[in-house]
Amino acid sequence: MRKSVFILGILIFAIACSSPDKKAKLGKLKKEHDQIAGQIAALEKELNANDKTQATIVSIQPLILQPFDHYIEVQGRIDGNENIGVSPRTAGVVTRVIVKEGDYVKKGQVLAELDAVVLKRNLSDLQSQLSFVSDLYEKQKALWDQKIGSEVQYLTAKNNKESIENKIASLKDQISMSSITAPIDGTVEDIPIKVGQLAVAGIPAFRVINFAKAKAVADVGEAYSSKIKTGDQVKIFLPDLNDELQQKVTFASKFINPTNRTFIVEVELPPSAKMVYRANMIAVIRIKDYSNPSTIAISQNFIQSSKNEGLYVYIAKDENSKKVAHKTFIKSGVTYNGFTEIMSGLTDGDKLITAGYKDLYDGQVIDYK
Questions:
Q1: Nearest to 277 by CA among 193, 366, 209
Q2: DSSP bridge pairs for 355
Q3: I need a labelling partner for 156 at 20 to 30 A (CA). Which of 92, 122, 218, 343 fits?
Q4: Nearest alpha-carbon partner for 178 in 88, 43, 82
Q5: For 28-41, what is the mean pLDDT?
Q6: Partners of 363 in the β-ladder
Q7: What is the DSSP letter of 290?
Q8: To 10 degrees, what angle do helices 117-145 and 151-176 make?
Q9: CB-CB contact of 147 with 133 (8 Å)
Q10: What is the CB neighbour count within 10 angstroms for residue 234?
Q11: Residue 286 pLDDT more than 70?
């Protein structure tokens, strides 16, 4: 029994001692593998560099002079030239809503009525008084025309009549103010009030919009205030309609909002049978602030940079009956929509390498169709 226990202990000790040796050996092999892999990569690179006959397959794009435009892009909204929140001219309880959302209304049409029972009762009383004082006035006038009675009696009767007439006119104006009317021709888009609610002057009870003329409106940052003016070319993209329009800036405000440091830009939209404009629909407004009618512009993906040398691209050239990659340093201009204007370094007819350029070096033999 003691012998068996002794042998078991020796085995456990041997296993414990062998485990670190295997780990050390594994680590050593991995280190040797990394060193060998690095040597292989270096030798392959050196062989490829020395082998001038091995051609790298690339793709090219002949460069041509073409127009290049830059746009300022802001998100705006669609609005009608007439978009009005209609509020009552006086406070009152709503007794009747005559129209519903979607109705087309004419200017001056009554939209809702407010409680005016007391005013109408007062009007009836004044009209009764007017009938009485009018009779007195007519009789007094007839006497005065015959030089009967005093002038004071005549003037008093006349004054009483005119006073009540003025009160009636004023009361009629107040009663008319109890009717909420449409200020423009248009469509009723929103009715936040209901019968029995108190309508208050200054708080919209209806929204009436006329889209006979629509416009795109945007708040543009103050930094662009010197670059945007009335008449500038504009592209209006409507994501909801998946359509784009070519228009001009019709209004560029000269007032900078002190709260958000923006100014308003408006673009009138043409009437269209195929498009239905809706208030507050998103409109992406692209305003042209730079244009070059003839220049070289390339995708910014083809431009590489070196910390010490600057920006460069590779172009294909024919040298000694071979096609080689030539590293060409460039000066870039503005960038828009993924394309960069090239101010210097490239000319019309150059063959820009557009595929396989990442691993090229200056003078490398290449091939393309």
A1: 209
A2: 59
A3: 122
A4: 88
A5: 77
A6: none
A7: E
A8: 160
A9: no
A10: 22
A11: yes
